[in-house]
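I am writing to request your help with a piece of structural work I have in hand. Thank you for your consideration; the sequence and its tokens are set out here:
=====
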Amino acid sequence: QYPGFAKRLKEKTTHFALHPKFSIIVPLYHTPLGFLDDMIQSVQKQTYENWELCLANGSPEDEELDAQVRKYMSKEPRIKYRKLEKNLGIAGNTNEALALATGSYTALLDHDDFLSPNALFEFVKAINENGDADCIYSDEDKVDQEGKLHYFPHFKSDYNPDLLHTNNYICHFTVIETAFLKELKLRSGFDGAQDYDLMLRAYAAGGQFVHVPKVLYHWRCHEASTASNPQSKRYAYEAGQRALE
């Protein structure tokens, strides 16, 4: 469990030489309202407060989801929202969220997952300590459907291109310099492994990777997620193979 008031206050009042704005981009698609609440509130609880949350909704027919997002927007000016005319897939919806981004760095967050309150704080520290970093990633764990039980922490290797060429060990939480990400974008032909394709292309383009060795991202397990059942999205394996090739 994240430490209490004293640590939060210290992080909130820490001065950094570099004080970048983060654009957190999230593709929405029939997102359960409880998952949406957990995701948005985890961003609002960040101890580093220079952020914007960019949401692209690929399920325009979902009126409850649309209404819930607009409810948050009415109280939180840092939320940007685009209701798409149709579902463009994972990559396409993410690119629509990316188009809203104005921060120096862009963070990738899934609609059913959530962040530790110190996630952005730790990434700002890493940026200040590694001024040439293009891609920054953290450790992660899994949580049950209710978002309460944490298990299977993934303590990752520092940057290892050989390991990256066997699997997407980087995965979550990933922050990429925005101009670099807008050059790369996500490719719809690799939906299911679009993040793996992105990391491989970032490596090929000379991206500088930095690892933050702390669990800052919580990957929710439910029946439709690859976190719970990798076979639920068999197409992701095939897309990952094509990305590697």
Notes: The CA atoms of residues 197 and 243 lie 5 Å apart. The beta strands are 22-28, 51-57, 79-83, 105-108, 114-115, 135-143, 150-154, 174-177, 209-220. The first strand starts at residue 22 and ends at 28.
